[in-house]
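Re: folding output
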Amino acid sequence: MLKSFDVIVVGGGHAGCEAAAAAATLGSSVLLVSMDLSKMAQMSCNPAMGGVAKGQILREIDALGGYSAIITDQSSIQFRMLNRSKGPAMWSPRAQCDRMVFSQAWRDTLETIPNLYLWQDKVVSILHKDGIATGVKTQMGIEITSKTVVLTNGTFLSGLIHIGSVNFGGGRIGESSSEGLTKQLEDLGFESGRMKTGTPVRIDGRTVDYSKLLEQKGEEEERYFSFMTDKKNNLIQRSCFIAETSVDVHDILRTGFQFSPLFQGAIKGIGPRYCPSIEDKLRTFSSKNSHQLFLEPEGEKTYEMYLNGFSSSLPSDIQFSALKSVPGFENVHILRPGYAIEYDYFPPQQLNHTLETKILKNLYFAGQINGTTGYEEAAAQGVVAGINATLKIQGKPHFILGRDEAYIGVLIDDLVTKGVDEPYRMFTSRAEYRILLRQDNADERLTPIGIKLGMVSEARRMAFETKYTKVNKLKALIKKTSILPEEINPFLESVLSKPIDQKRKAIDILLRPEVGLYDIIKASPTLKNNFDELEILKTDITDSVEIHLKYEGYIEREKQIAEKIKRLEYVSIPEDINYDRFQSISIEGRFKLNKTKPINIAQASRIPGVSPSDINVLLVFLGR
């Protein structure tokens, strides 16, 4: 009934949508199989994209030619740049989205991509022959063949939902779980585990007293996630609100601890340390009298709101009673209680850096199946898996990003090399080269790679080249132009900066910490007259130039460090090496090396438990 495909993608979440789009963009015939085609890239948890490190990942996906950032801009109802008080390596964009518009925009986008087909069904097993994946079998009994398969099952593999002492199967509330795949993969030799995540109550916004909450508005300045977006969407912009729990709230929550599946052992899966449930917070931070809650709109028009920080698996009556004691929520009505969900995952050391599994060739894993958490981490893996699935079919070299090239490279290297002992979430602290991996230069780093791969449209290529022509022109202008005291001193005095007494180069003034590029261009006729103001004062261009010039020394130094480390990546390790032969390597080192099978010395050096002396033994063996 269905023809054979180049790539079958299982799951229509963020990873699945990006994987299918990437593979089809590169010319593969793709079938995306999902249990519900009306919920593509569903925002199962909070209705937002980006944040610390996650915003950088989203811009990297966009720079490569992915779609998540574009769709975020189409559905955004609030935009903020986080960590503005810190250096630009820490700046992280975040957007509140209309979750229904977001999902529909993804569906609309997928329908425009040639060679991409949709199928509503549940995959129950992988077809395989001679150690190679050859397709899937669905719940309807249909066998569909393909050259590669990408699994992006999210929280649906043996999903189990917990609310107090009640539990039932489901991938998320109101949707059935997926059974059978885990058992089959285990029979093929895969190791699996259980993880847990949760989601908070959904609030009727009409029943909240906002006068008792702190309003958090978005930025008025026009900023976007995608490098291709140049105008605002037509959606109504919405505010978020901050609330606080109290001792009374905590006391009510504690009365439900005896019914908590988290504390009573009903939940076996490991939960996310950095996004704990409210009951976990009370136990871990028992001395704290309050915790912040963030009330976030689910859309531009709906009154449904998401209460970030109040994730819980306590009985629904306990959740409701505690919530009514939070100032502002005395008369609250909830649309749905919070719940926890357990699901199967596969430890990611079983993957290559391409996200192809080591046990079954032509089978790729992406998203929460690899032990990650978050839409952005999933989408990033989807892009990489979709690209590599197609490159393998086409007989082309694989696609791997280094730790000095992208947060996506850090993410995948961490998963494959270190594994996970809890749901993995990306932070800027996980990257060694944060100054290189900024949100503002994601296109500079990755769009040339996207062009080479064939992921980047002609329109994006031209926009990229036009932007950096302007960036380079402005950098040269700032370095060579001198400014007179009379034109710049009024501005310098206004920002409490020392006036100049003679003509000075613009770059010297810009290097002062209290001076911004946009400001000195506006203040100086000498600079302003060199460019069409509308052309040069575009935020992303001035941001890029200012960061390049102000942090040039730091950037160059970090590049040199990255180059030194990168040389170790050229020292390849044979695939069939048996580390047990090296008695000079520690027992733990031998065990970890045999398990991970690193492809080069750089990866081997990042494996926990492998010491510098172990690496020296390998270098001697390899003639280095």
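--- second protein (sequence, then structure) ---
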Amino acid sequence: MRIPGILACLLIPAFSLGQETALPDYPKGYFRNPLDIPIVLAGNFGECRWGHFHSGLDIKTESKENMRVHAAAAGYISRIKTEKGGFGHAIYIAHPNGFTTLYAHLNDFAPFLQKYLREQQYARQRWNLDISFPANKFPVSKGQFIAKSGNTGGSTAPHLHFEIRDTKTQHPLNPQFFGFEINDNIPPLMREVVFYKGNTYDRNNVAYKLRKRGDEYKPATSDRRGFSASGDTIEVPAGMIGVGINTDDHMNGSTNTITFATAQLLLDDKVQTTVTLDDIGYNVSRYIHGYVDFYAKEEDNKWVQCLFKLPGNRLSSIFTTLNENDGRLDLQPNDIHKVSVVLTDDNGNVSTTSFYVKPIQAADEQTDNTENCTPFYAGKVNKYSDPNIAFTIGTRLLYDDICFSFDALPDSDALSDRYRLHYPYVPLHRYFPLFIKPKKTIPLDLRNKVILKYSDGKNENAEATHYTEKGMYKTRVRNFGYYWLAIDTTAPSITSHQKQGANLSNAKRLSFTIKDDLTSVKSYRGMLDGEWLCIEQHRNNFFYEFDEHCPKGKHQLILTAKDENGNESEYVLNFSR
């Protein structure tokens, strides 16, 4: 189903039943395409990502870097930022109509701005900067060249990340609600509908694959737990049930997956939940872990979006409708009900699934009832301690109640037991302090080298710790899983991509790889012939683009790097230009 013309800009009809979702009345046509090529998306607003909702449009740049980027409207450059991850090189432009546009993962800025940035970097002897400007410093006109596109920061392929924000709140808004011309007549793809009894971690869920039949999607197969589908009727658990949808969307000319704009859940043709993906502040974006089935993503690598609200999910802005049960359906045994889910994308393309449910009182419901577990409650303070480990889970860390499971496993290679704090498939919203006592005596000169190692069963990482007066080591963590203490006395490794003594007259840059095996590279510094040199970082890659700070002749670069525990390495490169 395709909604034509201006109607899609005002209302998204969610279903043939007559339900409507009103969209925000943002100005249409005020902002131009920031590139000189048609908009083709690698990602759109509200798309599910690890730890956050995607906050803008990822516009493809034909797999190229250095495309010209233009101001989407008149205003002034209010901020620039350079960082190793995140947005990389970014420009913020404030506009007189109360909105701010953001352009990220850039390479060089326009010459007037790049010159200012470089001057500030050398004056402050820092390459990663975050600078704000008054309105009269760098005014820009609509369409003015401001930067070249790139692949900096957390980007994994060349593209332009583009956002529109409310200037007062700095909340990202859905740019496609501003009326950009984007070629898309492909409706969302519905893969699976999931029914949850209890929380999303108990695995008391029933999942049905969906297949397209005519204009709608219908349940296609029986569930793994023995519930069955017969015609347009499926069996589901009886009780207070939440509904989730596994879905993707696509647009013309792109193989990347994107997401819907609105979703509605209906029971007997009456709206129970409406989700509108718009106005998601960075301060609440991590609540995505309470919005999706985190277990399904962690264990099965699929995003199931929940059309109900968990007790600890404080992301209220996207739920524009919720019934009195926070979106859950009260399904009593053997009462037949009609359930519908309607998805509408940013261009007004609609997909629906509609079927009847027969609630069954299941006798074999599974729960996370591990022996010796301790009830932890969302919205309350939860504490755990014994002589060798202690922590407190605060009021805003859990999205739902759990039965916390703990185990201490002997590890002869570690400084402590290997402690299992519940399971990695249960997410936490914030950091909490974790204290662990070593089982071995640690010399005084090594106390500042103790690290806390972590494993989720797939990958390992580590953090520096701090010694406390009670003989325990403390750090802040934000995940359940396995934790244990170890020693880190190994400095970061520095690998040069240039040969010692090389003539680099025809080279454009110096580049290095700096890695730390256990923690991370906390700081680094490059000194060229005794003067500070602006060396940039992109993940483990470090580089300097040749400019007037390295004239022709013989040179010596001394590059140092420290990890989180103060272990330091040095590399000396002699070269000529």
